[in-house]
Each structure stands twice: as structure tokens, then as C-alpha cells.
Write a structure and sequence with these properties.
alpha/beta, elongated, multifunctional enzyme, Thymidylate_synthase, Thymidate_synth/dCMP_Mease, oxidoreductase, dihydrofolate reductase activity
Length: 525
Amino acid sequence: MAADSDVGLSNGKVNDHVDPQRTYQVVVAATQSMGIGKNGKVPWRLHSDLKFFKDVTVTTSDSSKKNAVIMGRKTWESIPLEHRPLPGRLNVVLTRSGSFDIATAENVVMCGSMNSALELLAGSPYCLSIEKVFVIGGGEILKETLNAPGCDAIHITEIEGNIECDTFIPAINNSVFQPWYTSFPLVENKIRYSFTTYVRVRNSVVADCNPPNDVTHSGPGSARIGYKTFTFLPKMIFERHEEYKYLRLVEDIISNGTLKDDRTGTGTLSIFGYQMRFNLRKSFPLLTTKVFWRGVVEELLWFLSGSTNAKVLQEKGIHIWDGNASRDYLDSIGLTEREEGDLGPVYGFQWRHFGARYTDMQADYTGQGFDQLMDVINKLKNNPNDRRIILSAWNPSDLKLMALPPCHMFAQFYVASGELSCQMYQRSADMGLGVPFNIASYALLTCMIAHVCDLSPGDFVHVIGDAHIYRTHIRPLQDQLQKKPRPFPMLKINSEKKDIDSFDAADFELIGYDPHEKIEMKMAV
């Protein structure tokens, strides 16, 4: 709806006037170079894009209200007569032309500028009858409104490929807007595209409040964000935030799970067989009820090194393996000869030395066993269509030697359209403490392997067998269900590192992560 180039109508910045003014959301389709039109027309026709536009701009939470769409005169004139005014919406047309007579049309009003339109919609009767305001074009109006302070969100159909355009809009300001939701890619008429909603997360950058040794944030994107509630989004968009996949599973287990005993004696509510899919193309799925990011990074690097020594993590202040590496626990499972801290041939050993004979955590296993991780990387580089690109931590002959048999036990990698996706099977999933960590860990592993193989991140698919909630975690998780998700952060990896064994924690920059406060849950051992 934004292919034309209307003249500037607001004589400067969009929000020159003081409140009261309505804020608004932009709806637009654009190429990767932010092209939106050619010769006054949209140079593509995508049925799903038209449906998305209609769904976003028509749908309201209150059935007694409607939304408003603001457009320039040329955009109005580009709408076929039989479709204008756009039905089910108040059409606000910006024009200075006195000869442009639409004043008598139903559901249509004229304004001379964006300011006057936003002021009109903030006053009676529209403040009571209009739920949301959307700016839909044309080119000059979008140039003024896209990154302006009054813009709460941008719903963009991102068109891939080289499509010639002569009308362009500014790039989205990523220091102000972060992705809320990105659809998985679609292909229609040989055009690949996806829908992304960006939300305004900050008006200005303020001092970073993170502790000095936390790798959660660094660099220019590290500033603390003044978050608000994002319920201004259309409900259909708000509920597409991928964190809801996790939250809905938690809710389902609490409501419908089977009460079971378990090895820890704590007791669980459990369901069997579930899948969650996370899109890694725009953002990173670190749940916004606080996840220990530094622990995610350091543990994954520890896996990649092949280490089985929990003391390596302890020395870095990471204590997630302490319970399973303690003297009392090792003795309780019959590993009385095992040195405290020695977890046995767990994840890292299987990834890097599968089939080697395990003695203890101090031994040098260089050249022993099969290096599955390097096999994965070599296949991705040399034969990406191979259907046997597998990383397995499940070695039945070694299970009796492990402090804890692998929970996340098997991963398969897949390449399509230059993107790397990973599907991981997890036999046992602690929804309170483990799963948020596991999602982040395998998403990070996928991004790292994509990085060293010159691929782009695609999807992380999390398949769960026994998805359970410990009885002691029910109340904290009920509290978590009351918290609204916030935008996922973005991940930046040091571009100079191309060897999977060369990374350290400082090579990962997490941009825009400002979670809710941590919810305390005690680990069941």
C-alpha cells in the first residue's frame, strides 16, 4: 500500500506539536534495500502479504471499535475504486488539495498533515472509537514516520531477491527498534519473503547497569532499555512472540500433566512428546524471564572443548554442574573411585571423542575416538545436503560411567537456501530450570557452527520427550506465566573467529537483552 511518493505534508518532523497526539504503527512491504515501489505501483503481488496487511489493520480486540489507516492522496488513488475506502477501517487521507473531494465518503476523513491527523484521532469521538492507528503510505509519508518518535511498531513484509524499485524508504533504526516476531520464510510467485514486526524499545540510550564481568551485554547495544508493556500491538502479533511457545507448554503441563515419581524423589507433572521451533534469522531466543547467559556461553564452550571437569566451570563462577559433581552425589550412584568434579564421559567427551575409552577427567584424549563436531563441520562445508549430519551424546556403553546420562542427546543439522537449521531431541526436559538454558545453548551452537561454515542461522527445532515440571517449581512457574514477554535480543559473533575451537566468551555480544527479574527455583538432584 506504499508504492507512491506523496509530497511531504507535515512541514518538518512528524511530531513537532505537543501532545495530545495518537501514536501509530507502520505497515509496509519493502525489499532488502528498502525499495517499496516502481512507477507508482507495487512491483510484486503476494496473496499472503495482502492478507497479512488486512489482518493487521482490520483486527481489533474490542469489537465495538475499528482501526484507522493513514495514507497520502496518491496511495488513496492507487486503491481500486471497488476497494476504497478500505472496508472496516477509518480511512484518513492526507492532502492539501482543495479540489480533492472525498469529504462525503463514509469512513473517510481528510487532513492536511500527519500532525493534524494524529491530533484529530486523539480527540473526540475518535479517541473512543478508534483502537489503533496504522500508517500505510506513500513514500514521503513513510520517510517522515518510519523512525519518528510517534512510531510504536513497524510491521514489514521483507522481500528477498533483486526486485527493481524507484521509490525507497529509510532503513529501520536498529538502535531504537528490535524484532518482536519474525515469520518463517514463505515463497510465492518465486519470491521469498517473511513478515517481521519491530517494536520501539528505547527513545534514548542511558548508562549500562550490568555488572562488570557479565557477558550479557557489551558494546553500543548494551544500554539498559526502558521497557514498556507491548500490548499496543495487534493481539495476533503480540501472541506470536516465540516465548509463548515455552509459556504455553508450561501452562499445559501445569493444567494437564500426569503426576509421576522421579529419581530425585521430588515428583513431577509430565507430558510426553512436544516440539518448539525458534527462528534464528533476526533475533536470539533467550527467554525474557532472566536466563543465565554467561552460564550458557561458558558451558557450551566447555562442551566444545571436550572437558568433563566441573571444576573448570566452578573456577569461572559457573555452578550448574556442582550438584552432579559433588562427592556425596558421585558416591550415591556408585562412582566412589571418581575424583570429585569428574563427571565422566558426558557431552563434551562424546562430541569430541566418541568411542574412546574413558579413564578420568585429567587424561589427554587427543586423537582418540571419533570427533563428531569436526565431522559435522566438514560435512556442512563439503556436502551440505548430506542427511547424516549428526551430533550425538547418547553412548549406551558409557552411560554407567556418567554422573548424569545426557538429557539433550541428539542433534541433526540441515542446510537450505544458505541457512543452517538444527533439530535437537531431548529425552528429559526440566521446564523450569533446564529448558530455557537448553534453548539458548543449542541456538548458540547453531549460530556458531553457521558462522564457521559461512552459513546464516535458520531454525532451531526443539523436540522433547518427557517434558516435566518438578512439584517444587509449580508456584514459581505460575508467577512466570504472569509476566509478559519482551523482545528477544540479537546476537553478534566476532567476525574474525572462524575456528570452532578458537572462541571465548568475549566473542559473543548480546544486544538488547533486558529481562524480567530472575525467578528462583531450586535444582532437583
